[in-house]
Amino acid sequence: MDNLGWGLQMTVLGMGLVFALLALLWGLLHLVLRLERAPVVPMSGQASTDAAERIAAVADDAIGAQVPVTPTVHGMDADLVAAIAVAALTHRAVRRREAAPVMRTYWPGSLLYASRWVTSGRARQNRTWQRGDK
Amino acid sequence: MTDTTGNHLGKLREMRSRAVLGGGQKRIEQQHARGKFTARERLALLLDEGSFQEFGALATHGFSDFGLDKQRFPGDGIVSGFGKINGRRVAVFAQDFTVLGGSFSEVQSHKICRIQDLALASGIPLIGLNDSGGARIQEGVRSLAAYGEVFVRNVMASGVIPQISLILGPCAGGAVYSPALTDFVIMASDSFMFLTGPDVIKATTGEEVSAQTLGGAHVHTARSGVAHLATDTEAAALEMVKRLLAYLPQNNNEDPPQITAYDPTDRMDEALNALIPLAEDEPYDMRDAIARIFDRDSFLEIQADFAANAVIGFARLDGFSVGIVANQPAFMSGALNIDASDKIARFIRTCDAYNVPLVTFVDCPGFLPGTDQEYGGVIRHGAKIIYAYCESTVPKISIVTRKAMGGAYVAMCSKQMRTDLAFAWPTAQIAVMGAEPAVGVLYRDDVQRAADPAAKKRELIAYYRDQFYNPYRAADVGQIDEVIEPRETRPRLVRALEVLRTKVQQNPPKKHGLFPS
User: In angstroms, rounded to a whole number, what is the distance separating the alpha carbons of residues B189 and B177?
Assistant: First the structure.
């Protein structure tokens, strides 16, 4: 029983010491914060709006300074260059769909590249159609 | 130097100036007020700049009955001649609505026939711009006979030179048969075609119908199937001719224009491997497959709104023109019916006539059942597909993507239809009929005798699916040449067509076959 009583006393003493130190520390911090706090100056609504606008203007200037200069190609801005590129690609697509001369690999109406096999074969295929064929 | 021909030249120039004005400035302004171009303006839009050479600009009729002697206009309501489209020679005629409403006369017939004869002799496409109120009544039977002269030449040129008709205004009565005899009909949105007009219909049957509802572009591209393409404007219709011509040759001895390849031949689109849904009855759009397999942005669908359960059109593969025939699982599950059969058969024959190889995509559960179809003669209409495939001699490749059932499998470019190469995707299901009806026929007694008929039926359906719902049985017996990954389709097709480019096949000599009709 003596040991138990001694143990309880030590526990209370130890924990009390820790909490006492924590309370002291909290008090010190609270004191420092009070001493460091800037005095609050009362301000009207208009004044606070003006102050906010001044801050915003500074921020705008800072952002504006970061916008890169629009690149140009032969004096044309990027939008115009993009529009020309789209027009050229569209034109090319139309020419391709229509098999325009510039897109073709040979000239229609010519059998220059057809094989003799195909030429004679087609002649035979078509001959069956003709009447009076011997 | 004295110009001794001065007076003669002056007269010629004056007559030419009159010819250019057609029915006169007032009529031209009326035509413009209707939002329409004149015949010459249309030709200017269609043909390469400065390429048009006119014939018969000064021809006029010789009739004087019914006051016709006071209505003589050089050209007599039609402008005809030769020109070039993207450097390719073409023969053209354009009816001039400003001259007597473009009414079809004997002189018109002579001019059209002349240009038809020259086009056939030269082996170049013929393009007709139709905008006419019908036969010139004042000329009586002569104008009717004149139609016949044009029709016979349409038929003689059929399958020899591409013939394209544009309907840019009214086209009524006997006049409709000439476009109907040509290979392609393109309609501008405010044009119409019919045999008997709204007034005649009202007088004979009492039915009231507007010209557009009776024979407008939508009617003929979506319901009757008379027209192949429709556009919102005249200018778009003229542009469409250029696009269509890009897939067609000058004549039946030559090849369509090949353009420089712009899409890699070995491109494999991974999305194709995930295109077929897991659920076998879930639809997918066959046009997605087509767009991913063929050259980028090259697919020109024909008759998109008519019989949407079948897809037909031209595309390019490695720069070469190919014709595509496909079932459309996204509409009526891709089942074949009367209209789809007609649509497919006609397109196969068009491609065959003009040396355009055919690629067929098969996903078809069969022919559409029902009394409507049987009474309508789906047998003879379906037979058209078989006839057209068997008769054709161009390279033919088929790809079974999913369902290929019964007679529809045979008809849709099976090996026996003289198909050169038959591919199948691993998702293919090639069988005589679907699993449930097949089990019903094959195992009716077994199912009835089983302790638990429903469980037995499920078991047998699973067995049937395991046996036939794949392409491997067909590959075993040589009905399928190769089972391929969907993404491999493009390179496989490119290589196959490269080999088949010089394919020549000859049918037995005959006057002509008897096409089911």
Answer: 20
